[in-house]
Amino acid sequence: MAIERKLGTEDNPDIVDQGKAVDIEAEAPSFEEQLMDSLEVTINDNEIIIDEAEEEVEQEMPFDANLAEYLDDYVLGSISKKLINDVENDKESRKEWMKTYTDGLKYLGMRFDEQRSQPFEGSSGVIHPILAESVTQFQAQAYKELLPAQGPVKTQIVGQRDANTEMQAERVAEFMNYYIMNEMPEYDPELDQLLFYLPLSGSAFKKVYYDASIRRPVSKFVPSEDLLVPYEATDLLSAERVTHIVSMSNNEVRKLQLSGFYADIELTGSEVETRDTVTEEIDKIQGVEPEYNNDEQRRLYEIHTVAEIEGFEDIDENGEPTGLKLPYIITIDESSQKVLSVRRNYEPNDPVKNKINYFVQYKFLPGLGFYGLGLSHMIGGLSKATTSILRQLIDAGTLSNLPAGFKARGIRIRDEASPLQPGEFRDIDAPGGALRDALMPLPYKEPSNVLFSLLGLLVDSGKRFASIADMNIGDSNAAMPVGTTVALLEKGTKVMSAIHKRLHYSQRTEFKILARVFGEFLPPVYPYETGSGTKEVKLEDFSKKVDVIPVSDPNIFSMSQRVVMAQELLTMVQSNPEIHGPQGIYEAYYRMYSALGVDNIEALLLPPQDMTPKPVDAGIENSGLLQGVPANAFAEQNHEAHIEAHKSLFLTQSVQMNPQLQSIIIAHVMQHLQFLANQIAEQQMPPEAQQQIEQMMQQAQTLDPQSQMMVQQQVQGIIESMSSPILAQLSSEFLASIQPPPQQDPLVAIRQQELGLRDKEIELKNQQFASKEQQDAMETSAELQLQQQKADQQAMNASEKNDIAKERLRQQAELKLIDLQARMNK
Fold first, then answer.
1. How far apart are CA 463 and CA 685, in angstroms?
2. Distances (CA, A) of 151 to 405, 502, 550
3. Distance in angstroms (rounded) separating the CA atoms of residues 245 and 303
4. Mean pLDDT across 790-804
5. What number is the average pLDDT over the span 380-389?
6. How far apart are the first and last CA of the chain?
7. What is the pLDDT at residue 763?
8. For the chain, how many helices (H) and strands (E)?
9. Which of 176, 248, 299, 482 is the most exposed, fewest CB within 10 Å of its CB?
10. Longest dimension (CA), the chain
11. Which helix (H) or strand (E) holds 290?
């Protein structure tokens, strides 16, 4: 009967060689009889040795055959007994870890106990939700980051980058994202469930393998309680024994037996319910109980271990056993303790026989051993304490509102067993005296403020540890420096950031295993349909040239953190846009919109103009040089024309008086001279040198990047050796052309300048003397004129006084004459 070799199913992925079809004989009695007659079995305390007399028999056995079909029942029984004993020891070694995990599950607050009778009947059974809140918030943050809507996978190129490897990396990323999001329906819910279990138990596992029953790869979540390792194990790769506890129906086991995957043997005994404490507590939380019949479900131990089986051992070059234990996957039924399969767990062409790993461990906190620590271990005590305090506060309030006490023996109250209702008055038969003397309530206190404060302190401590405290960065001062804001953000998210980095590492390992499975089961070309049309991926694309990594950022674990970082970046760019330029401002806004999750950002942002320097005309270069802006020369320019234009600018009077502009122009011209020298050197290069350079460049295409850089340096050295003399000649000619005409002896020039200054000084003094003489003459003339005017004025004044005196005498004479006549008339 021909069957297809399987790489595992959902419950038993214990086959090594994935994706290859081989025909084997399900029934080979003649071969079995031949093998059994040629085996000599030796059983020691620590190992089972099978000595095969006829080496030719083993050569006829397929590499991926189920060895349980050919080994003696006594040998298989010994293997089963030893491995089951090892598995029980592995369970015992983690007993305390399981107890702490179980206690943490009790304080999730998902199961409310209403039948509590201690400390009194009807006391509160509420559980504080700090643990459930921490778990839920972590799961919500990590789920969104590890599985974005566009897909969780991206790629990076290992080694040399070229067009082919870039296209290969793009095909791998597109295909894996498509396959995970569309063809692996279990991936999303399995990761979702893993991220809820992880903070509780501290460890969770993924199992990645090719499932031949559904003909595709799968990635299954494995709870930590279903995976066992030895006490001394530190990680999955170095553990000599990894046991996966698989629950499977009898019908599924029988189906695999008929297909040849498991040995077709009778599984005697009934499956007995053997739930561990974690499973029992989870069932209580869910409110379910196992009700299946004993013959419906079986539990298998799928043990990935190493063993030395003589006849299948590692052989050296001389054909002698090396003593190296080889990897095997052995599946045992727990109830009947019978071995269902023994298969090799290494590649047939692997010279070192390394085991193939199918498991990935996710850790919440690294812990002190193999199993990680979760919130149940770290804040389980805080959750227990907060629950106890919360119950005390509620019970104190209950007792204060409904007090109890003592009453006198003779007093009778109607319906005394029923509590009083609001507004109700009952009849009381009192023998006499005051009623208050017959009733004495117990002194119940109100809920304590001290307990309430202590509850708040414990809750805050738990939230700080679990990194679920609110970040009040948005409520802080708007003028707070960027560095302070980032420091506050880092301070509040250190724990969660470290956890997210561990998740990123584990998911990267998972994707590497998944890529390995793709590389083994895919056909040479695999076409698949997407919304944008038909695409294809090649089997050879899954090579070591492309590394598969998660798309999540290991340094950013939440949208709030990403938005804060983008906002601070945008603030820095806006504060000084000159040094960032249009491209920097565009990039800052683009990252801000990306952090906010905005779709089609290109429709909102206008892309900046191309800021790459481009060749311009010589006149435009001269315009910039006059403004002090350096210019760049380009190889494709007309260098001779540019040099002449810049030389004309250099010889202008304004440039001759500005040494700084002269330096800028000369520096730019030197660039043109270098390009011109390279052009002349290439034109004058001998054909032998050109052929040598072409051969070196062709050989460099097949080398690694570092070797290519060395070859380019050698080629550059050859060109420089030929262009350097030409550049020296061109530079000297240019510098000579811009030098001013020859000048006389500086001392003579200085003496002439001194004489010229002295002549100018004498001439200036003569001019000053003549000017002074002229000024003195003018002042003298003006003074004489003033004196003449004064004399004329005085003469005029004297004449006027004389006329006035004459007039006065005449008037006096006339008065006297009149007076005389008057007297004479009398």
1. 75
2. 66, 19, 9
3. 9
4. 85
5. 80
6. 200
7. 85
8. 24, 18
9. 482
10. 212
11. none
- State the chain's mean pLDDT as an integer: 77
What is the rounded distance in angstroms from the CA atom of residue 723 to the CA atom of residue 684? 10
Taking phi over 0 as left and psi of -120 to 50 as alpha, with beta for the rest, 160 belongs to beta
- Which pLDDT score, from 0 to 100, does residue 726 have? 85
DSSP letter for each residue of 312-377:
SS-B-TTS-B--PPEEEEEEEETTT--EEEEEE-S-TT-TT-PPPP-EEEEESB--SSSS-B-HHH
Helix (H/G/I), strand (E/B), else coil: 818: helix
Averaged pLDDT for residues 36-56: 46
| Long-range Cβ contacts of 90-93 (<8 Å, 24+ apart) | 90/228, 90/229, 90/230, 90/231, 90/241, 90/243, 91/228, 91/276, 93/230, 93/231
Task: Identify the CA nearest to 134 among candidates 382, 390, 498.
Answer: 382
Provide the CA 359 distance to its chain's centre, in angstroms.
Answer: 24
Asked which of 205-219, 370-384, 636-650, 802-816 is least confident by mean pLDDT, the reply is 370-384
Structure token digits, residue 29: 């009695």
Buried b (16+ CB within 10 A) or exposed e, 532-568: eeeeebbbebbeebbbbbbbbebebbbebbbbbbbbb
pLDDT at 227: 92
Helix, strand, coil proportions of the chain in percent (round to 5)? 55, 15, 35
The predicted-structure confidence for 308-332, as pLDDT tens digits, reads as follows 876 677 788 887 888 888 899 999 9
CA dihedral of 347, 353, 356, 357, whole degrees rounded to 10: -170
